[in-house]
Amino acid sequence: MLTPGNLIKTVLAATVLVGLSSQLTAQESRTSPVYRLQPGENHLDIYQRFTTVLEHTARIKSVLDFDAEIIEVKVVQGNPQQVRIFALDTGVTTITLHDEFDQYFQVEVHVEGDVRHLQSYIRRDFPDDDVRATEIKGAVKLTGWVTEPSHITQIIEIAEQFYGTVINHMKVGGAQQVQIKCDILEVQRSKVRNFGMNFQFLSDSGYLISTPGPITPIQALTVTGAGPVSTLAGFADSTLTFGFINNNKIFQGFIRALREEGLLKIHATPMITTLNGQPATLLNGGETPVIVPAGLGTTAISFKEFGVQLESVPHVLGNGRLRLQVNTEVSERDFSNAVTVNGVTVPAFTVRRANTEVEMNFGETLVLAGLISHREDASTAKVPYLGEIPWVGAAFSRKRYTKAETELIILVTPEYAAPMSEEQIPYGGPGKFTDYPTDKELYFHNLIEVPLYGDECQHCTGCWQNGSCQQHPNGCVKNDQGSSANSGIAEFGSDAESSEKTSVPTSYSTADNKSKTTTTSRSRELIAPKPKSQP
Fold first, then answer.
1. Strand pairing partners for 223?
2. Which of 177, 220, 221, 360 is the most exposed place for a label (fewest CB within 10 A)?
3. Contact criterion met (CB below 8 Å) for 171 and 407
4. What is the mean pLDDT of each run of 10 residues along the chain (535 residues)?
5. Where are the strands (E) in 129-248, listed by range?
């Protein structure tokens, strides 16, 4: 008896059977797909040890010209329009089909090695990468793109567990040019206080000399019947010298009273652009000769670099991160600590250097190194007991107090970089917005550089007569307001005595081959006068 409960069970059982049947059919169609012949060229890709059914619209009479070591061809029982192809070994072969209408069809069969196991690991462990594995003569070739350079090494390690030889054709996607900007900022402040006194008192009957320090060393002292005679080494360290003289007495005082303050600021910003994983070097400075030993007691000359230097090797990691190897340096020659060897002066070097490896995101700024230094140095030279007496002891002593502070910081900022088109290049550049002075500006106003009124070809006769010249083949550019930057110029006359300005009409050809005629005047005044009318 069919009850409602039994009816529901029957429907559920039928649904399950239908689902299992559809799954089995789908699975069979994936493992044994059917390839139907198409007009024109036919290409069939099949994995090794897999079967594919080749189907034709007409009856197949014979199958010719295939490599029996690569594939095996059998007739499908009960269906003369189909043949079954079984892949025996990797390779490429061609099948020729002869049908009942005496027509011939060719199918190129490419048998690939079964790399699905390796491909499943790659797809599961690296879902954001597009890598395809292909078996070639017992080896595997990996092609495609990865999101991070480290994935290449990891994928190769997995592939080596399946194949002894791995051919790597993988590439890292995204931008691969990196611009590195390094900021080096340093401030040095120093204060030096000096105070000391030397004196000598000479008379025909005696002498008293006090030289703690000394400020003025005694080079020679001679005592005769007429009285003592002293010779001083010099007065280079004395800032105040005085004396009193009468018929038979001499008093000389030498005071060193000086306060020195020093300030040094350094701000260097080297920038360099390089490819991922490629080293790059920048040097803005020079090379100075230094003496180096050459063997057998001889010396030779070598050159040492100095200035602003930057060496860097970026490694893009993906997801906006990179690993950066940086070696930056700011050095300068220090002749105050130089040495002389065989008549050749070899300078010392003051160096600020940082060499490190960091990992960071693009666009971020990281402090690579820093220094805060405070130094105080005090020294005194005095005559015992006399130099310790308040006020009076200043005449028998010398003091020096030095205080120095140093602050140094080194920053680095990496950015993705790409070339720009010619239209994006900003007009001008270093030194392009100033001009040489006229005679009046140089001799009477003491100006060696003045603002530029016009463009770089304003003094070029060929440009304002013919529109362009050999040096400026494209003619004169336009300024930001759209008007011509190559205008006529009105400047001081060639004679130094003449200050009359003239106006020169200028005809030129712009980039769009339009001709214009304009007249302006070049003036060094803050308010430019109106140009004269054209003739």
1. 228
2. 220
3. no
4. 47 41 35 77 88 90 89 89 90 90 90 90 92 90 87 92 93 82 93 91 87 84 78 82 88 90 92 90 89 81 90 85 90 89 84 91 91 92 88 89 94 89 79 86 92 66 61 53 37 37 36 36 38 42
5. 130-136, 139-146, 166-172, 177-203, 206-210, 218-224, 227-232, 240-245
